# Entry
Amino acid sequence: MPDDLTVKQWVAYAGLDPRHFESGSSVAKRAKISKAGNRYIRQAPYMPALVASRYEPHVAAYYKHLQEKRGLQKIQAICAVMRKILHAIYGMLHNKQPFDGSKFFDMEKA
# Structure
């Protein structure tokens, strides 16, 4: 991917950006992922998100936070973890630093 993309554009390219649905004043549904981007890039972080949400303490805490505090279903929480993993990868590539779980999710604030 080109180096001049922002993190929002990068996530949108993968199709993991939230798409809000509104129709006038009476219909306002919950946001869903857009699925407008590259499906192969969207599929790639699925298994890493599953494994990380089980074995990496900071990612597991974020996954648990999404389910308990925000009321997301399991697949919705996994999609949110996938999106956040893309954010983390973007930060790691641009800052040339290894993964730091404390930057992913601060367990003390949750």
